[in-house]
Design goal:
This protein is globular. It has about 140 residues and is α+β, with helices and mostly antiparallel strands. The chain is about 25% helix and about 30% strand. It has one domain (about 5-135). It has 2 helices and 7 strands. Strand 2 and strand 3 (about 75-80) form a beta hairpin. Strands 1, 2, 3, 4, 5, 6 and 7 form a 7-stranded antiparallel β-sheet that branches. The longest helix has 20 residues, at about 5-25.
Length: about 140
């Protein structure tokens, strides 16, 4: 199926609106860079919303790891659902959340992001499942 530039633009606007709406409804969103030390899993202090925000920041490269890579694009924006956070906070653990991720190539995906924290509580690895593409790339 081939989409026209107008179709892609409309879909892109809708995806951005959906991500923005998720933020307005209390879904954690990635906003600005934070020092890696502040991204240690600390659900006791911040609850699932804080953990979801941390996972979103890490996914886009604002947490001590490179931005997630999907095909031709790096993660540019992520919003993670606090209600889907799994894992227990602490050192040497993995935590995950279901996230909406927009990539630099213009595509948008619903993926589960998993972050592994090392012995000092810093993120040491992250990855996603295959997920579901909700918006095709804007290029060719």
């Amino acid at each position: 199926m081939k989409f026209s530039a107008k179709d892609i633009q409309v879909r892109k606007v809708l995806a951005i609106a959906a991500l923005g709406g998720a933020g307005c409804c209390g879904v954690a969103a990635c906003a600005t860079a934070a020092p890696a030390a502040s991204l240690r899993p600390s659900a006791a202090a911040t609850g699932n919303s804080g953990v979801a925000r941390d996972i979103a920041r890490i996914a886009v490269g604002n947490g001590g790891l490179a931005a997630l890579d999907q095909g031709d694009g790096l993660a540019a924006l992520a919003t993670c659902d606090p209600g889907t956070v799994s894992g227990r906070p602490g050192v040497s653990t993995s935590m995950s959340a279901s996230c909406g991720i927009s990539y630099a190539d213009g595509s948008a995906w619903r993926q589960t992001v998993t972050v592994t924290f090392g012995s000092k509580g810093n993120p040491v690895a992250d990855w996603t499942d295959l997920g579901t593409e909700v918006l095709l790339p804007t290029g060719g």
